[in-house]
Known about the structure:
Elements: H1 2-31, E1 42-43, E2 46-47, E3 53-54, E4 64-68, E5 75-78, E6 85-89, E7 94-100, E8 102-105, E9 113-116, E10 121-123, E11 128-133, E12 138-145, E13 150-156, E14 176-179, E15 185-192, E16 207-214, H2 229-232, E17 236-243, H3 251-256, E18 268-272, E19 279-283, E20 287-289, E21 297-299, E22 314-318, E23 321-325, E24 330-331, E25 340-341, H4 348-389, H5 392-400, E26 408-409, H6 412-418, E27 427-431, E28 434-440, E29 446-452, H7 457-471, E30 481-485, E31 492-496, H8 503-507, H9 518-538, E32 542-544, E33 553-555, E34 561-563, E35 570-572, E36 579-580, H10 592-597, E37 599-600, H11 602-618, E38 623-625, E39 631-633, H12 634-643, H13 647-650, H14 653-657, H15 661-674, H16 685-698, H17 708-721, H18 735-738
Parallel strand pairs: 3-4, 26-30
Antiparallel strand pairs: 1-2, 4-5, 6-7, 7-17, 8-16, 9-15, 10-17, 11-14, 11-16, 12-13, 12-15, 18-19, 20-21, 22-23, 24-25, 27-28, 28-29, 29-31, 30-31, 32-35, 33-34, 36-37, 38-39
Helix pairs in contact: 5-7, 9-11, 9-16, 11-15, 15-16
Bound molecules: 2-acetamido-2-deoxy-beta-D-glucopyranose (10 copies).
The site of one 2-acetamido-2-deoxy-beta-D-glucopyranose has 4 residues, from strand 6.
Amino acid sequence: MAMVAKRVLLFQIAATLLFASAVAAAASDATAAVLKPGCLSKCGEVDIPYPFGIGTDCSMEGFNITCNDTTDPSKPFMGETNIEILNISLVDHELSVYIYMAYQCYNESGSSAFTSLSPAYLFSTIRNKFTAVGCSALAYIVGETVTGNTYASGCMSYCNDAGGVSEGTSCDGMGCCQTSIPESLSNFSTYFNESDKNSEVASFGPCSYAFLADQNRFHFNKTAFSPNFGNKTNYLVPVVLDWAIRNQSSCQDAKAHPDTNACRGGNTACVDSTNGPGYLCKCSHGYTGNPYLEGGCQDIDECKLPREYPCFGDCRNIPGGYHCSCPPGTHGDATKDNCTAIPPKFPLPARLAVGFSVIFVVLVALVSCVIIRTQKTKHKRERDIFFRKNGGFKLYEEILSKKVDTVQVFTVEELQRATDNFADKRVIGCGGYGMVYRGILDDHRIVAIKKSKKVDERQKDEFVNEIIVLSQINHRHIVRLLGCCLELDVPMLVYEYISNGSLFGLLHPEHYASPLPLQARLTIAEQAAEALAYLHSATNRSIIHGDVKSYNILLDGDLSAKVSDFGASQLVPMDEDEFIMFVQGTLGYLDPECMQTRQLTDRSDVYSFGVVLLELITGKKAIYADDAWEKRSLATSFLVMMKEQRLRDILDNKMIGEGGERLLGEVAAIAKECLSVKGEERPSMKEVAERLHSLRRLRLQPREEYDPGEIEMVKAEETRRCTETDTSGYHILDSSTLLKNVDAGR
Ligand SMILES: *[C@@H]1O[C@H](CO)[C@@H](O)[C@H](O)[C@H]1NC(C)=O
Ligand SMILES: *[C@@H]1O[C@H](CO)[C@@H](O)[C@H](O)[C@H]1NC(C)=O
Ligand SMILES: *[C@@H]1O[C@H](CO)[C@@H](O)[C@H](O)[C@H]1NC(C)=O
Ligand SMILES: *[C@@H]1O[C@H](CO)[C@@H](O)[C@H](O)[C@H]1NC(C)=O
Ligand SMILES: *[C@@H]1O[C@H](CO)[C@@H](O)[C@H](O)[C@H]1NC(C)=O
Ligand SMILES: *[C@@H]1O[C@H](CO)[C@@H](O)[C@H](O)[C@H]1NC(C)=O
Ligand SMILES: *[C@@H]1O[C@H](CO)[C@@H](O)[C@H](O)[C@H]1NC(C)=O
Ligand SMILES: *[C@@H]1O[C@H](CO)[C@@H](O)[C@H](O)[C@H]1NC(C)=O
Ligand SMILES: *[C@@H]1O[C@H](CO)[C@@H](O)[C@H](O)[C@H]1NC(C)=O
Ligand SMILES: *[C@@H]1O[C@H](CO)[C@@H](O)[C@H](O)[C@H]1NC(C)=O
């Protein structure tokens, strides 16, 4: 049993192999299918492709070929004719055949020639030329086209007695002439006119020949004049015929009759005949074979034909074409053998680097986000702390209780923008609490921003004090507070900007400037006094300035006084005349009584104002250097001089020169009263203001012009002076070093 099974298996394998090889053979036949099965493929040496064929059912109608095998090799003829076929081209739709020539010899009778073609064929206009060879030969050609037109032409060759044609000559008239034929020529005859026959021409041959000939096969040369030229060729010349399917006039007609369409199967294309009516069948691009046979057009496997379809890379055949690409890692034109290696755009290390970079960036971004978030929260917390520390809540309480409603609260960013981030060039002064900057707000308002020095816990309330005090004051000779910022550890106040700097700066310019006129001085003094009087009495609660000095009296554009810097100010309830506080002020202006009692009263301001009056009339600083370069208190010196009746010695010479000695004396008298040791002996600020007012009215002279250009210069100096506080004659008194703190007894 086992043996039988094995044999059956072997048989099956053999059968499979046989079948497979048969299929392969059929396939290879199909690729070369130009022939109808069962028909001869050749006659002699000429290939016979369909639609041509030998015998019944082997050809298409009109393409019958007779193969005469009595000769060796066999010779194919067109149909029933005696026209021998030399070659058949399926691709070019051409047929090379032999036809007869016409000839005539001078002592012989000649012959004309006639050729007629069956409907499928026409003489090729391109390939053939009517040619006459001979001496003084006039040859004629007369034919008919398929459209029924008659065509007649002729040509004449020349010759001369010198005779002969040189080797390698062409058919250019000498011994040979040529002319073209029209399209669609179906039949024609060639002949010579007997009466034109020339007499003997020794140098040339005895005969002339006329024929239509294939230009590729007939080359005119000297042998055409050999006596046996015609005899040697059997009077036959090769000519090219165009063949086509001519029972429909065009492809359009052929498509209209699909059942008789000669273009069979797939992958064929129909082309109109270029010579005469009819159409041609061709294989589509990328296919080869016989378009006149069913399934005759087969795909060309271009990859197997590297000579016709060069490919130096990876070749892949596709129906109707092929893909030729450079091998992986290279680029270029694979069909031209210049695939070059692609420079590695992203080698592995680079790719790794990019990958890690991306991860790194993402990580950094994440971490940054977290940090920024925590920083923001921290920053916010810090701001809140500062706000609280700077007495923000006290201010808010006041705002809530409607005591403060004119103060605008600024953010740090707003003020940084306004001052170029607190640039040094924006510094316009330095007060007792810190630097003062010139700033421009977002709404273009020009302001002075007072940036406090670091405040300690003890000072925080004072800072808010100034805010509250100033917010309740609205007087034309007092600097207006516009707002504040409590978000930093250094609180800031925003004031209206006073353009002409301080009285101190004008009185004590670093460089020479024309002195402030007496009238202006009096006006300033009166206005400052008015402002202080207002502080002391005009509001519902008395306010003591606490730090009156020429540095704190600012001057605006028209030299109108503006009292500023309320850092030491205190509100005094109306029912209390004086209260206890820790005193701070500036050396040279400090009320001696206050220093002893540590009680600040409105009369302390009067004392300080007295010193300012002295500055105005003497032109000296509150602490000045005398002729011996010894530092002296102006107040003390003045009082001594007054006692010794030497007032003139201390007065400003320029003012005396103005003829104001009497006036200066009056002011000196007021100053003296202001400087009384005992507070109660000093006049009130209101009195001082009134007396100054009447004094100024006494002076009838018109106010003199003051050059503003010089004021600018003075201001610049003042800015610079902030860095040289020692030479300014001021010393900012820190109360903690001079006096023991006393709790505010409110
Ligand atoms: C045209 O020729 C084809 C092929 O020879 C043939 O099958 C067909 O019958 C012919 N049609 C006419 C109208 O003659
Ligand atoms: C072709 O020619 C042969 C003789 O050469 C003839 O027997 C045959 O019938 C012809 N076929 C056609 C289709 O004309
Ligand atoms: C074949 O050719 C010879 C000589 O060329 C001729 O005698 C003979 O009749 C031809 N046969 C046919 C069938 O045409
Ligand atoms: C026949 O023509 C084809 C194409 O025109 C050519 O390749 C071939 O050599 C020719 N054969 C002969 C015998 O002239
Ligand atoms: C024609 O002339 C040549 C010489 O000119 C001569 O050899 C030849 O026999 C002649 N032929 C006839 C038929 O007269
Ligand atoms: C020449 O060709 C035309 C057109 O094909 C035809 O009508 C005519 O009968 C032909 N003449 C001869 C003598 O064959
Ligand atoms: C031949 O030529 C003569 C005169 O040159 C002319 O009369 C005659 O008609 C011509 N014959 C032909 C058929 O052309
Ligand atoms: C001259 O022409 C003939 C036929 O056309 C050819 O066989 C021969 O080789 C040619 N001779 C020269 C020298 O070209
Ligand atoms: C032509 O050829 C035949 C034989 O092929 C020969 O007998 C005859 O003499 C030749 N004629 C001439 C003019 O060469
Ligand atoms: C490929 O070769 C052709 C011709 O040799 C040249 O013109 C072309 O620039 C080359 N291309 C490349 C990518 O090298």
